[in-house]
Specification:
By secondary structure, the protein is α/β, with parallel strands linked by helices. It contains 13 helices and twelve strands. The chain has helices spanning 15-23, 50-59, 88-95, 122-153, 157-174, 213-222, 233-240, 245-254, 261-273, 297-304, 306-310, 320-325, 329-334, and strands at 3-8, 41-46, 63-65, 68-73, 100-107, 197-203, 228-231, 275-281, 285-292, 312-318, 339-341, 352-357. The strands form three sheets. Strands 2-4-1-5-6-7 form a six-stranded mixed β-sheet, sandwiched between helices. It has a three-stranded mixed β-sheet with strand order 3-9-8, with helices on both faces. A hairpin with a 3-residue loop joins strand 8 (275-281) and strand 9. The longest helix is centred in the middle third of the chain and has 32 residues, at 122-153.
Length: 359
């Protein structure tokens, strides 16, 4: 598994259409009315990985196993959701289970598609969603602070420290600062606004390559604090129907686009969450694995199986370039391009690994 993200936004901004496009499915019922998504739809998409296929070709792997991105389409939130309006807290709770939030913002005009607020104003839309998430976080951290206060009275040092941090985060939320922008670590409190956000400006087809005044406004206000992507969900739906990679490339180039929205989301998600890929490659299978930047070799081994981490001895590492240049593992080893590393080794993006461990 790679990582997962939840698609959020106001009703009728194109969340479900984008979900359908990204997952190349019709799992979400994209209709022109609020709350058509009653249960969060979940889809998984293969993370495009050209290197994995090159390595598999060299090793003549019988099976290719790429990493995956899981996408959850969460129902449209409205003003008052934190107090139970619309579909309320149920869907706020669904956001807690994702690694990152894809906040879809309507940046197109279409009289045939109703906007819940009656006007196209992406900055106001973002503010509405952020406010509801922060209000929900205030409620959550207030409850946590009550429990911490009891422990702090007992001179629990850890609780005292957490309580001090909670107060800082709580004051920030009350003044409009999301937890992810707090001066202290919000991780222990499992808050909605602590999750990284990727803003997706859903534009009309003509604006897909360069954006428009609406997406420009989003980029100007939020571009320095979070990634802002410009994607046309309609175009993504068309791309999803094209099976041949070369035809997809031509289709994108004709529109002035260099990559699909899916590729943009995946690359941005990996960077935002600090993720990277390592490989295990052999004649049976070529497998891509997703890990966090900074993980050690034993921690990476644990992603394959917990026994690998527990009994870790050492790892044999080959760079993907050397693997290809010297025709695989044997050629790379004979050329002196295989490195033996120990428990302190920090994994590098693209490492091809063979882990040695005790049972």
């Amino acid at each position: 598994m790679g990582f997962n993200c939840g698609i959020v936004g106001l009703p009728n901004v194109g969340k479900s259409t984008l979900f359908n496009a990204l997952t190349q499915s019709a799992a979400a019922d994209a209709q022109n009315y609020p709350f058509c998504t009653i249960e969060p739809n979940t889809g998984r998409v293969v993370v495009p990985d050209e290197m994995l296929h090159k390595l598999a070709d060299v090793a003549k792997s019988q099976k290719i196993i790429p990493t995956q991105l899981e996408i959850v389409d969460i129902a449209g939130l409205v003003k008052g959701a934190s107090a139970g309006e619309g579909l309320g807290n149920k869907f706020l709770g669904n956001i807690l289970g994702v690694d990152a939030i894809i906040h879809v913002v309507r940046c197109f005009e279409n009289d045939d598609i109703v906007h819940v607020n009656g006007r196209i104003d992406p900055l106001s839309d973002i503010d509405t969603i952020e406010t509801e998430l922060m209000l929900a976080d205030i409620d959550s951290i207030d409850k946590q602070m009550k429990n911490l206060e009891k422990k702090a009275h007992g001179l629990d040092k850890a609780a005292i420290k957490l309580l001090d941090d909670a107060k800082i985060i709580r004051d920030g939320l009350a003044s409009g600062t999301p937890a992810r922008a707090s001066a202290v670590d919000a991780t222990p409190f499992n808050l909605l606004t602590a999750k990284p956000v990727i803003y997706v400006c859903n534009v009309d087809e003509a604006s897909a390559a360069r954006g428009n005044k609406f997406s420009d406004a989003v980029r100007e206000k939020y571009g320095n604090t979070a990634p802002v992507l410009v994607i046309s969900s309609k175009i993504e739906m068309e791309i999803a129907q094209i099976v041949d990679p070369s035809e997809r490339k031509i289709f994108l180039e004709d529109l002035g686009l260099h990559e699909s929205g899916l590729d943009q989301v995946i690359k941005t998600g990996y960077k935002t969450l600090g993720l990277q890929t390592f490989y295990t490659v052999g004649p049976k299978e070529a497998h891509a694995w997703t890990i966090t930047v900074g993980m050690t070799a034993p921690q990476a081994a644990g992603k394959i199986h917990t026994d690998f981490e527990r009994g870790f001895i050492r790892a044999e590492i080959i760079s993907p370039d050397d693997f290809i240049t010297y025709g695989g593992e044997v050629g790379a080893r004979d050329a002196g391009k295989m490195r033996l590393v120990g428990k302190e080794y920090i994994m590098q993006n693209g490492d091809i690994c063979h882990f040695l461990f005790n049972n």
